[in-house]
């Protein structure tokens, strides 16, 4: 499972670099932070159960943040 977190770090790094190249600096910063967190967690050698709990926590926070942003911050389509 630790290798999965490092793999998630690799893909978030790829997304961050593409966002940076596309002049989407806020999105790039968000994904650079996620990359650092995933690589750090991937090398801490937690138990399998801990990694699963951390991933579920990440998914809940990510979905709640996405839902909040799309409902309350983006506004209604014209």
From TrEMBL:
Keyword Transmembrane helix appears in the UniProt entry: yes
TM ranges: 31-46, 53-72
Domain of life the protein comes from: Bacteria
InterPro entries per the UniProt record, alphabetical: DUF2626 (IPR020254)
Assigned keywords, A-Z: Membrane, Transmembrane, Transmembrane helix
Protein known as: DUF2626 domain-containing protein
Organism: Cohnella ginsengisoli
